[in-house]
Design brief:
The protein is built from eleven helices and eight strands. It has 367 residues and is an alpha+beta fold. It has a domain of 164 residues: Heat Shock Protein 90. The N and C termini lie far apart (159 Å). 21% of the residues are buried. It comes from Robinsoniella peoriensis. GO terms for molecular function: phosphorelay sensor kinase activity. Its EC number is 2.7.13.3.
């Protein structure tokens, strides 16, 4: 009996182990299922959190995109669309203005966008060109009217001068014959070659004829000296009778009122693009106020009236010639003047370099 109990004691222990193992085997699947369920629930919660976060971020992105579109739209309206609308109203207002300078609207435009400023600058430039064309047309009409008023049959004039010269030669009055011949050549060049370009030599011959007449008139009170280089005489062209009015102005306002013998010198030189001729006299000079007026008028685009020029005792011929040169050749050309009272005056004539073989620039400032 004892043997039997002893025999089965290990079996009892084995039964406990088996029971424990059975319990473990029984509970482990449930535990694992519980853990799996917890993990699954955690995974679901984690996925939910991730989905919620992604949706939140997506909303933020869409909101930022929407705000960016709105901001870009506002910027586009301010800098592109609004100026275009404003420009349209500007055009309509400009059409109703006769002179923008006199309108308060013009001051408002100055603070507007660059598009409007560029547009207004273009309109002002076009307006300036139209004004210049109108000035040139008015001057041309005035010149034609003056020519009609003073027109004399050239052949009648030439024949009369030739008759006077012939009588002078018959009676051995050489001075009258020489003066008449000089006057005849001067008028011939003035009429026959009007509106043309002359070589520098031909234009200086016109000046010599004019000076010959003046020397007879003033009984040799002043001397004429030409210092232009001979290499320039037949190479360059200038408008017909453009130097003579400058020489005449030097005599009338400088040498005529000088006590004693005076001198008039014509010199010239060439730069890369300009032909510069200087007419210098040692006459009475020009007073400071009159000189400032003359310099201002020489730079101005407006014509000077004879009454205004007479007020300052300055020659209107210089102003008109300078303006015609600028209209014909450009703003960088024209006349400049410097003078010292009691010392003399230098008048500078600035022209483009037009070589004899260069026919691109035709006509005259008197057209």
């Amino acid at each position: 009996m004892k043997n039997i109990k002893k025999k089965f004691m290990p079996g009892k222990l084995n039964s406990s182990g088996v029971m424990l193992a059975a319990a473990v085997n029984l509970l482990l699947p449930s535990f694992l299922c519980l853990i799996g369920k917890e993990i699954a629930d955690f995974q679901i919660i984690n996925n939910y959190i991730e989905e919620t976060s992604i949706g939140y971020y997506q909303k933020i992105v869409f909101l930022c995109l929407g705000l960016s579109i709105v901001i870009l739209g506002v910027i586009d309206y301010i800098f592109l669309i609004k100026p275009v609308f404003h420009l349209e109203s500007t055009v309509e207002e400009y059409k109703t203005l006769t002179r923008m300078e006199d309108s308060a609207v013009y001051e408002k435009y100055l603070a507007d966008s660059s598009i409007e400023r560029m547009f207004l600058e273009m309109l002002e430039e076009q307006k300036f060109i139209q004004q210049q064309n109108q000035i040139a047309e008015n001057q041309r009409q005035e010149t034609e009217l003056l020519a009609l008023q003073t027109q004399i049959n050239p052949h009648f004039l030439y024949n009369t001068l030739d008759s006077i010269r012939g009588l002078a030669l018959i009676h051995d009055v050489e001075e009258i014959a020489a003066m008449t011949e000089a006057l005849s050549r001067l008028f011939r060049n003035m009429i026959a070659k009007d509106g043309k370009l002359l070589t520098l030599r031909e234009e200086l011959e016109n000046v010599e004829n004019y000076m010959l007449i003046q020397e007879f008139r003033f009984q040799g009170r002043f001397a004429y000296i030409c210092e232009v280089e001979k290499s320039l005489l037949d190479r360059y062209q200038i408008p017909n009778l453009i130097l003579q009015p400058i020489v005449e102005n030097a005599i009338m306002h400088g040498l005529e009122n000088k006590n004693g013998r005076g001198h008039l010198v014509i010199s010239g030189y060439v730069t890369e693009k300009r032909l510069v001729l200087n007419v210098t006299d040692d006459g009475v000079g020009i007073e400071e106020e009159a000189l400032e007026y003359l310099k201002k008028r020489l730079k101005s685009k407006e014509r000077s009236s004879p009454r205004e020029a007479a007020k300052f005792h300055t020659g209107i011929a210089l102003i008109n010639i300078s303006q015609r040169i600028k209209l014909r050749f450009g703003e960088i050309y024209g006349i400049a003047i410097e003078s010292t009272p009691g010392v003399g005056t230098t008048t500078e004539l600035i022209l483009p370099c037009i070589e004899v073989e260069d026919r691109q620039v035709k006509g005259s400032i008197y057209e």
